[in-house]
């Protein structure tokens, strides 16, 4: 484990200790990951009379949903389904048959949050037939334009979808397709020792109550899994893009893209495809929170900074909502990243130099730069605006990778001598001078003049 400065470790330990003590959490383990390595982990409280370790299992609640989402995306990448497909195509007979698979993944289907019957998290669960039969017209909730509405039921349905298409229970598919390839040996459907006991803490007295740990049946894909800190380190790396052979990094990037927004008074969160999203002080975090009776957990990845935060606790409630982000703040405050020393690149394609520099979209100045990774970067000279990175194609064109021009084609226009004269970005013409008269600007250029 990469070590932090003693002062940093003390600051993190103090925040952990305050969280556990003030909120009366029976046991709490938390840690930080940077550049794929655990740089700090510590725990407070005890499990079975001993301090919690990185191999102690906790129930991770809705973090389970992220695994189910990966199984669905694997089916999509294999061509077995499309996110636009109707649920009726695979699970006919429910009142949400006209909803798309993608809407279930992005929590925008309008499906009720909880299944019919008793509180599913504290009672034995039924089978898939019972779950699907309970999804009638009363299970739909009015959401404007199919906006965000969190649904545990939706992921129970997605778990059954995986089971139908793979011909095996979803958790067996997960073991074969995700856990085994990633070496996550301590992530299981049922608890395996050593594991914490789920506890509720009395709000007005220092006594605890044992919470049940029932098999949720068909609702298990919404929140049943148990895991350890060590396994969650592997998973936070996965969410950040270190996917091994399980899923293409571009697919995980797609999962991290907003599909619906949790539009509160000051919205700062949303949902991708099976991943919760959070905007925090310039960071774009992806991951999930989790809770089941007796347990809470958080897992967040900051892919841009290659940083992650994880915590797991055995308490029904009481954790502060800022614990994860406080740990990220302390790391950034006490041990900010030091930029690598700049050196000239040995891999620049010198032929691209003629494309760099100032360009104009009409009167608006833009700059085209060569990035260290060989991509081109087109962005406004100052202020905010339409900016994108571009990757070269074999035919001499370039494809936008992000931003406004994601997926769009950039072509270089040249004169008879081969000198670049303009850029054609899906009909938008960029020229070396503002509205250059010799360039093929749609509508023509009458020339600059004095006055109004």
TrEMBL record:
Lineage top rank: taxon: Bacteria
Domain DUF7586: 349-432
SUPFAM superfamilies linked: beta-lactamase/transpeptidase-like
One Pfam family from the record: DUF7586
Domain Beta-lactamase-related: 16-328
PANTHER family (alphabetical): D-ALANYL-D-ALANINE CARBOXYPEPTIDASE, D-ALANYL-D-ALANINE-CARBOXYPEPTIDASE/ENDOPEPTIDASE AMPH
Protein name (Swiss-Prot/TrEMBL): CubicO group peptidase (Beta-lactamase class C family)
UniProt source species: Saccharopolyspora antimicrobica
């Amino acid at each position: 484990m990469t070590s932090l400065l003693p002062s940093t470790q003390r600051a993190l330990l103090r925040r952990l200790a305050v969280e556990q003590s003030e909120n009366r959490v029976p046991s709490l383990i938390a840690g930080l990951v940077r550049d794929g390595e655990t740089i700090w982990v510590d725990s407070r409280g005890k499990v079975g009379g001993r301090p919690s370790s990185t191999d102690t299992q906790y129930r991770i609640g809705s973090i389970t949903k992220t695994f189910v989402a990966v199984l669905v995306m694997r089916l999509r990448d294999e061509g077995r389904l499309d996110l636009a497909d109707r649920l009726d195509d695979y699970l006919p007979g429910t009142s949400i048959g006209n909803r798309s698979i993608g809407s279930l993944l992005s929590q925008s289907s309008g499906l009720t949050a909880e299944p019919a019957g008793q509180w599913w998290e504290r009672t034995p669960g039924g089978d898939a037939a019972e779950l699907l039969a309970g999804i009638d017209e009363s299970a739909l909730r009015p959401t404007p334009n199919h906006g965000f509405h969190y649904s545990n039921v939706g992921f129970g349905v997605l778990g059954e979808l995986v089971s139908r298409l793979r011909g095996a229970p979803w958790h067996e598919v997960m073991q074969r397709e995700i856990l085994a390839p990633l070496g996550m040996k301590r992530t299981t459907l049922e608890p395996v020792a050593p594991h914490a006991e789920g506890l509720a803490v009395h709000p007005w007295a220092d006594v605890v109550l044992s919470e049940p740990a029932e098999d949720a049946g068909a609702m298990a894909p919404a929140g049943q899994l148990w895991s350890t800190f060590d396994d969650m380190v592997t998973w936070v790396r996965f969410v950040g893009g270190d996917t091994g052979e399980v899923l293409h990094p571009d697919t995980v990037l797609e999962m991290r893209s907003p599909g619906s927004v949790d539009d509160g008074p000051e919205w700062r969160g949303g949902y991708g495809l099976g991943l919760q999203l959070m905007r925090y002080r310039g960071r774009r975090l992806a991951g999930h929170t989790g809770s089941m009776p007796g347990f809470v957990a958080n897992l967040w990845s900051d892919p841009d900074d290659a940083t992650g935060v994880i915590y797991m606790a055995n308490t029904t409630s009481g954790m502060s909502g800022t614990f994860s982000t406080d740990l990220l703040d302390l790391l950034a405050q006490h041990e900010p990243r030091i930029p690598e020393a700049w050196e000239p690149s040995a891999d620049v394609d010198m032929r691209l130099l003629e494309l760099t520099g100032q360009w104009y979209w009409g009167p608006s100045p833009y700059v085209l730069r060569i990035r260290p990774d060989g991509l081109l970067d087109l962005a406004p000279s100052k202020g905010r605006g339409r900016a994108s990175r571009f990757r070269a194609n074999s035919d001499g064109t370039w494809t936008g990778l992000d931003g406004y021009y994601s997926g769009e084609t950039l072509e270089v226009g040249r004169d008879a001598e081969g000198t670049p004269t303009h850029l054609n970005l899906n009909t938008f013409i960029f020229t070396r001078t503002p509205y250059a008269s010799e360039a093929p600007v749609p509508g023509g250029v009458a020339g600059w003049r004095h006055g109004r």
